[in-house]
Amino acid sequence: MTTDTITARTVVFHELGDADVLTIEDLELPEPGSREVRIRVEALGLNRAEALFRAGTYYYPPTLPGSRLGYESSGVVEAIGADVTEFAVGDKVLTGPNIEMSSAGVYAERVVLSVDSVVPRPEGLDAVTGAATWLTYSTAYGGLLETGGLRPGDHVLITAASSGVGIAALQTAARIGAIPIAVTRTGEKRQHLIDNGAAHVIASADTDVVAETRRITNGAGAQVVFDAVGGPGLAELSTAATHNGTIVVYGWLDHRPMAMPMNWPLRMYGYANMELAATAEGRRRVNHWIASGIRDGVFRPHVGAVFDGLDSIRDAHRLMESGTHTGKIVVEL
């Protein structure tokens, strides 16, 4: 007995470079093996990590030629392999954790993934909104609460606040009763940030971030600084933290070397989301946190732009790298 070969249009790249290196090819899909599922992808959520990976500046390099791309998607389970008990055919799911992009990137019409890379889609989320949810809110949860130890009443300074993770961090901090201070380049997005939980907004282009943070906190400084930028500016940014405060760096938008902060005592963490997502227990906590926030209406994943189909992936990447959008960019299939 023979079965039809299943293929899927898939985004790949054969050399490092800008968005122009991305191509679409028909790749053959294997049947799901033990502890694997096949997913029909409905929407893709773009992350800056993928632009870095494509350019060869991510923390691990792509395997070339023929590297795949992408962490985050929403879709429906089409088939399951042996020993899969977590999911059934027809389940609505999200992807994100435990993906090595070269071999398992999700920019495709269909993907076969380990069950450790798949989580249930919370009730009430459509495919497009779902694709903007898991990585942003899991990063905010893990970085602010599990690593940063953010508590009710704490001031938290959030850089790159208009990004997908930034919006999730504002909503996460507000949900536990902390006081989010959003940092954005200009004041154009001020009202949007306030609508998403910011108690204060600092436009870094025309305001001294450290001085304004000190003013807002009556001279004490923020208990937690949640930073996506890094680079040499981190040393100065750290002086916005309170005595014995905490710095959590989860991104490196500035690729230059970081200078060591000297305003000790200070706790400084480099947050890696994959550590939390690596265990079933970590994923369980994240999933419950996200689902409960969606259910009570505090978490409102913000989709800044929606592109139509895989053929738009280059344009979607160009917008992501322009930095002119707010929230998450999604490609709907």
Task: Please give the structural blueprint.
Blueprint: E1 6-12, E2 23-29, E3 36-45, H1 48-55, E4 72-80, E5 92-95, H2 101-104, E6 110-114, E7 118-120, H3 127-130, H4 134-147, E8 155-158, H5 164-175, E9 179-184, H6 190-195, E10 200-203, H7 209-216, E11 222-227, H8 234-237, E12 241-249, E13 266-270, H9 273-277, H10 280-295, E14 303-308, H11 313-322, E15 328-332
Parallel strand pairs: 8-9, 8-11, 9-10, 11-12, 12-13, 14-15
Antiparallel strand pairs: 1-2, 3-4, 3-6, 3-15, 4-5, 5-7
Defining key terms:
2 domains; 6-stranded parallel beta sheet; oxidoreductase activity; 7-stranded mixed beta sheet; GroES-like_sf; Rossmann fold; Quinone Oxidoreductase, Chain A, domain 1; alpha/beta
Describe this structure in words.
By secondary structure, the chain is α/β, with parallel strands linked by helices. It has 2 domains: 6-132 and 301-332, Quinone Oxidoreductase, Chain A, domain 1; 138-274, NAD(P)-binding Rossmann-like Domain (Rossmann fold), CATH 3.40.50.720. It contains 11 helices and 15 strands. The protein has helices at residues 48-55, 101-104, 127-130, 134-147, 164-175, 190-195, 209-216, 234-237, 273-277, 280-295, 313-322, and strands spanning 6-12, 23-29, 36-45, 72-80, 92-95, 110-114, 118-120, 155-158, 179-184, 200-203, 222-227, 241-249, 266-270, 303-308, 328-332. The strands form 3 sheets. Strands 3, 4, 5, 6, 7, 14 and 15 form a 7-stranded mixed sheet that branches. A 6-stranded parallel sheet has the order 10-9-8-11-12-13, with helices on both faces. Helix 4 crosses helix 10 (280-295). The longest helix is centred in the last third of the chain and has 16 residues, at 280-295.
